[in-house]
Known about the structure:
Elements lengths: L13 H11 L4 H14 L5 H19 L2 H17 L3 H49 L1
Helix pairs in contact: 3-4, 3-5, 4-5
Amino acid sequence: MDQNNSNSGPWYNPENLNSQNQTDGTSGNSEQTNSKQKDDFLSENNDNALAFGAISMILGIFSLISEKLILGILGLVFGKISENKKRNTYAKVGIVCSIISIAIGVISLIAVLVIFAFYGTAILEIIKDAVQMDASWA
């Protein structure tokens, strides 16, 4: 393989990095520990999936109660992450609540836009008259 190739060189070869660290007096254990922690976090058999599922369920329920679209989106994201790691009931509940909340939020947004599209000028006139009446009281 050509040494001038951008995919070759010491920065792409982990063995060279480890050997350089060992010759510099530092060990390559910190890099190995970081990659091991990352692998543990992303593995399918860890407890983070249950935590993400619980977060998804909480966000989904709060998004239904408060009708906040962003909570529904976050609940859906956390639920999908949890479901990809390990299927659990918390993730399913969170995903269902989040989807319902997102659907209600989108329908509400469309309804508001349609109302303003058809009755926007009338609503603005009512607001303008109310402001003028309030100013006359002062």
